[in-house]
């Protein structure tokens, strides 16, 4: 067996050094991702909760978004934009879940009339019924419309902030909000809330 020549030893050394550099880069990336994800994971969960309206599903969505973000972390050029980038991934994961809901709706066991009768026994029945009607109207919106309504009225973001987070024009946000609110009003009126809405206006 021949001893490796000097050129071969140099090439082997360079290969080992390259492997070490790659591994060090992975460790550094993992550390950086962990630091950033830990900072914004609660924000991601709250955002998912607002959009999905279900704490358990929001936990799953935030987890899925974190896994997806790690897989795509190499595409993020500016770590200072991590929050906006991560928020966009969370929104996309939630949008997929909302679309899945529309394709596979859950059948409620109790009728709307039964629920209203039960709620009317409470002193706060008016508020509860209004919230129930709003929730029913909200889930009838298109997923993209649900998202802008959630960001605008539950997260209290401005139109420009929503546009930046979703990377869409502000005009698109305004249009989606307009159509969403009109649909919400129509659905609320269909459920008998015309007078209440006009009294508040």
What would a concise description of this structure say?
With 201 residues, this protein is an all-alpha fold.
Please state the overall shape, judged from the principal axes of the Cα atoms: elongated
Tally of individual domains:
2
* Uncertain stretches of 5 or more adjacent residues: 15-23, 107-111, 116-123, 195-201
Describe the largest sheet.
none
Output the helix-strand order.
HHHHHHHHH
Strand content: under 5%
Query: What integer is the average pLDDT?
Result: 77
Which homologous superfamily in CATH is the superfamily of the largest domain? Answer: RNA polymerase sigma factor, region 2, helix turn helix motif
Q: How many helices in DSSP terms?
A: 9
Helix content: over 70%
Please state the structural category.
Answer: mainly alpha
Tally the beta strands. 0
If you compute it from the alpha carbons, what radius of gyration comes out, rounded to the nearest whole angstrom?
25 Å
Fold-level CATH name of the largest domain = Rna Polymerase Sigma Factor, Chain: A
In the CATH scheme, the class of the largest domain would be Mainly Alpha
Question: From the coordinates shown, what is the CATH architecture of the largest domain?
Answer: Orthogonal Bundle
> How far do the termini sit from each other?
92 Å
